[in-house]
Design a protein that fits this description.
239 residues; extended; 8 strands; 4-stranded antiparallel sheet; 434 Repressor (Amino-terminal Domain); alpha+beta; Immunoglobulin-like
Length: 239
């Protein structure tokens, strides 16, 4: 395995414990099994998935903890030795140089192939042209028989709109947000500076914010005065 899983696991575990996050907190945000997260941190290769999937999991985990730049160098694959590449090129060159053909053997089959291909091109061209005209005529006749139908659309009443709780989240520093709407619908976001999202609920919003100092929350147009430190993970419930 080209990945330095032991060093990566050491960095991830240290940062997770520094932020006072449990395995359960990580599984909720990343939707990964607890056993996978433990295996990444401990370097247990018997449980770890294929390297292709493992790279994606590590990238998500490191981004969540804001340490991807520290982890990235240990994910880089080392190129094969130059001698191996040169030997391979020499072998291929020898392989191709050892195969020779008579020019006459190649010329006659090539001419025959060109003639056959030309015949099929012209044949398909005229066939497709007649088929297109037939399809066009058929679609024209079908179109003239169609009648417009009325589709009834239901719109929300003013009373329903006024009863909704509206939440606006603005971001000025990269952070992830996990929100449960009305104790049932779960959504997750990764926000970058100057981005914002709008959410609606009937009862409440239960939020878990990965960088409390990076966002502002507005409920029904009013600032909730939510605050925190950069890199701090905080939970808040809004009614």
């Amino acid at each position: 395995m080209a990945i330095n899983i032991n060093k990566i696991g050491e960095l991830l575990k240290g940062k997770r414990e520094e932020k006072s996050l449990t395995y359960e907190d990580i599984t909720k945000v990343l939707c990964l099994r607890k056993s996978i997260i433990e295996a990444i941190e401990t370097g247990n290769k018997d449980i770890l998935p294929h390297e292709v999937y493992l790279r994606g999991y590590i990238k998500e985990y490191a981004t969540l903890l804001n340490i991807y730049d520290e982890v990235a160098p240990y994910l880089i694959e080392k190129p094969p030795p130059e001698e191996t590449i040169e030997d391979k090129k020499a072998e291929e060159k020898h392989h191709y140089s050892s195969i020779t053909f008579s020019k006459k053997i190649l010329i006659y089959p090539s001419i025959a192939c060109i003639l056959v291909i030309t015949f099929f091109i012209f044949d398909n061209f005229f066939h497709d042209k007649s088929s297109f005209q037939s399809i066009q005529n058929t679609s024209t006749s079908v179109t003239t028989q169609m009648e417009p139908t009325n589709i009834e659309q239901k719109e929300a009443t003013p009373a329903q709109l006024s009863s909704l709780k509206r939440l606006m989240i603005t971001c000025h520093e990269r952070t992830w947000v996990s929100v449960v709407i009305d104790d049932s619908e779960k959504k997750e976001f990764m926000l970058n500076p100057h981005e914002m999202i709008f959410l609606n609920a009937k009862e409440n919003f239960d939020l878990l914010i990965g960088n409390a100092g990076g966002v502002r929350l507005f409920l029904n147009g009013k600032d909730t005065e939510f605050s925190g430190k950069n890199g701090e993970v905080k939970r808040i419930k809004l009614y």
